[in-house]
Amino acid sequence: MDLTIEDDNLEFSLNQASIDKASDHNSQEKEVRKLKSPYVGMIFETLNEAGQYYEAYGRQEGFWTRIRSSSKYRSQSNEVTCRLFVCAHEGKHVMQTQKEDDLTEKDEISENDEAETCDIQIEKKRRRSCSTVKCGCEANMRVLHDKWTNRWKVSVFSDIHNHKIVSPARRMMMKSNRHMPDAAKDLTEAFQRENLRISKVPSMFGGAPNIGFDNRDCYNHLRNVRHKELESGDAQSVLNYFRKKQAESPQFFYAIQCDEDGKATNFFWVDSRSRTAYQYFGDVVTFDTTYRTNKYDMPFAPFMGVNHHFQSIQFGCALLQDETELTFLWLFETWLEAMGGRYPSSIITDQDLAMKGAIAKIFPTTRHRLCIWHIKKKFGEKLSHVYYQKFNFKTGMKKCIRATYKATDFEEQWKKLIEEHDLGQNEWLQQFYEIRESWVPIYNRSIFFAGMNTTGRSEDTNAFFDDFVTSTTNLREFVVKYEQALQKIVTRESSEDFISEHKYRIVDDDDFLLKHAAQVYTRNIFEKFKSEWTRVKRLKVEERGSDSQFHRYSVMRKIDNS
């Protein structure tokens, strides 16, 4: 979707709608200035008409109104026969003081109960400091129902105020002038859906000082919309949304786990496109649970991979109550069912014992690799006394992990570093050495990982989702925003498809290998291949001798392009 075009369309429709939808409110403003002061004996056709007239009169004169009381004099009828409208400044504010409890049996209360009672009393006394508009104003209008004419007559009217009247320049701030036209409500909801700044809406209608609503009214409207949508409960609303999506697309898959009380605890869902993508690109999966940006602080757990453009793609996701092995067992079993029972060749996660146990049980043939970025980060945390103070240890460890090409070389260099820096008794290093096959690159070079060795794909996606969700996002909003984020991922892939199909890579005519690669690879993958091929061409191989068992070669690298 082209947001620029849509913004223009929104602005165009806004200008038109603001004329059509808000014109009624503006015309009311003009009529208000022509209103006469109410008087005893003034007749209204209905009770609502009387209330609207007094409210409009107050808007004109600089005060706002409220209903003080209603009376029903006829015992045989439940209809209102008298109503008193007053200025909003009527009455006096009464402080709500905490009544003292009767503690005649105080001696029988235990010490714990006493402390608990004290805490409750202190909590009740903590009241927010606030202001009031009530100052004893006696301006009012009383109307009575005339049963013979079936109309309403003003019986009492007082227009004497004991407070300062609101000036014309500030009357838009009065409660009676708070009015948000339908066009503004529609635009606010559209901005919310497209992740645009809600604060722009009032300015597009002329600015808060000139209209009957401001930023707070926009956010209050969204809150009311959310409350209306979630009347059946947040979890139930998510279930309804999942059912709707599955009705629209039978390949949409979802599962909700409930506890023994029937309350929803874990949510998993995946759309049809992601399920199809897994069949093509599901050899390597990254899984991460560090993202928690939602109202309930539930871990967001996306299953990620890469496509033919080396772009991040989704294979489904979950919102979890906790990160126990039982939860992961349910999630991995559910995800495997959604993916047709096909195991990934490899999976990359951070170091989590509960996750590790569940992966070993559900994916017994899958190679489980730990995120090397998280492990390297822990070196600085666990070994700060040598990692940052002894430069040769830090560089030596990096070479040991990254620049060894045989398992035996890694093991020899590791032991040498441990001995040089007297770290033989460090339990943390011993534990990591024991699981070296799950994180050291040399042990994983024969296994396909699609160029990934970290969960960075998942974490980049987490940052990507920050544009769509906040810490106040509820469950239903989260799954809706997730769908919007997926659409953005699809749009990005489609754009790269177009470039790869309709734009040609520039290759020398005599480089036949690159010419062939340009035909079979997408643009991004071709660039990776070209980079590797260019480095290979800078190498020179010469045979140094041979015997009955081995041929020996010398590989040299050019230091320039000459």
Can you walk me through this structure?
The protein is 45% helix and 15% strand. The model is unreliable at 1-32 and 97-128 (pLDDT under 50). Helix 1 runs antiparallel to helix 4 (182-193) and helix 13 packs antiparallel against helix 14 (407-420). With 562 residues, it is α+β, with helices and mostly antiparallel strands.
Distance between the termini: 49 Å
Shape estimate = elongated
Q: Which runs of at least 5 residues are low in confidence (pLDDT < 50)?
A: 1-32, 97-128
- What is the number of strand segments? 14
Main sheet properties:
7 strands, mixed
Mean pLDDT: 79
Approximately what portion of the residues adopt beta-strand conformation? 15-25%
- How much is the radius of gyration in Å? 36 Å
Looking at how many chains there are and whether they match, the oligomeric state comes to single chain
Helical content (DSSP H or I, runs of 4+)? 40-55%
Question: In short, what is this structure?
Answer:
The protein is α+β, with helices and mostly antiparallel strands.
Q: What's the topology here?
A:
Layout lengths: L2 H30 L10 E2 L2 H15 L3 E7 L10 E6 L23 H15 L14 E7 L4 E8 L23 H12 L6 H5 L10 H15 L4 H15 L4 E6 L5 E7 L1 H10 L2 E4 L12 E7 L5 E8 L5 H14 L7 E4 L3 H10 L4 E4 L1 H11 L1 H4 L3 H12 L4 H14 L6 H8 L21 H10 L9 H28 L9 H9 L2 H15 L1 E8 L4 E7 L5
Parallel strand pairs: 8-11, 11-12
Antiparallel strand pairs: 1-5, 2-3, 3-4, 4-5, 6-7, 7-10, 8-9, 9-10, 13-14
Keywords summarizing the entry:
alpha+beta, 7-stranded mixed β-sheet, 15% strand, 562 residues, 45% helix, 5-stranded antiparallel β-sheet
